[in-house]
Amino acid sequence: MRIVLASLVAFAALGAHEEPALISGMGTLGCSKLTEQLMPSQGYGQNKLSVAVFSWVQGFSSALNVIGIIQSGTFSDLKSITEDEQWSHIVKFCQRNPDGFVFDAAREMIATRLKVETGPPLPPTR
Predict the structure, then answer these.
(1) d(C-alpha 81, C-alpha 107), whole Å
(2) Is the CB of residue 77 less than 8 Å from the CB of residue 62?
(3) Is 118 strand, coil or helix?
C-alpha cells in the first residue's frame, strides 16, 4: 500500500510543475478555431483575430530569419510572395489540416513558399 501511495504522491508532484512553453501566442491557435471565424475570400485584415494571427506569423517568420542570418547567413524572403499570398497559404493550410495549429501553417509557408536568400551575417552581440 505504501508503494501505491508513494507513487501517487510522486505523480501528483510531477503534475504540479507545468511544462515549459516553447510557443506562445496566436501560434498555438488551432486551425479549426481559425477557419471557423474567417471568410476565406477576405484578407488578413477582416477581423481582429485575422490581424492578430497574421501579425504573429510575420513576427515568427522574422525571428526565424534573424536566427538564420546569425547561424548560416540565410533567410526566408518575406517579400518573395505578397502578404495576401502568405495569408492565403495560412488559411488553405488550416482548411486542409483542421487539427493543426497556426504555428504549423507558418512553418510550412516558410519552408515551401518563401525564397531562401543569402545575406551578411549579423555581428555577434556582446
Answers:
(1) 15
(2) no
(3) strand
- What residue has cell string 488550416? 94
Q: What is the pLDDT of residues 8-64, one digit of tens each?
A: 334 344 444 566 777 778 999 999 999 999 987 889 999 999 999 999 999 999 999
**Residues in the chain, how many?**
126
Q: Which of 85, 88, 90, 100 is nearest to 30 (CA)?
A: 100
Q: Is 25 exposed, middle or buried (0-12, 13-18, 19+ CB in 10 A)?
A: middle
Q: Where are the alpha helices (DSSP H) in 17-124?
A: 31-36, 48-72, 83-96, 102-112
Helix (H, G, I), strand (E, B), or coil: what is residue 122? coil
Grid cell at residue 25: 501566442
What's the pTM?
0.77
Q: Determine the average pLDDT of the residues in 79-95.
A: 96
- Write down the residue that cell numbers 512553418 correspond to: 107
Q: Which helix (H) or strand (E) holds 10?
A: helix 2-16
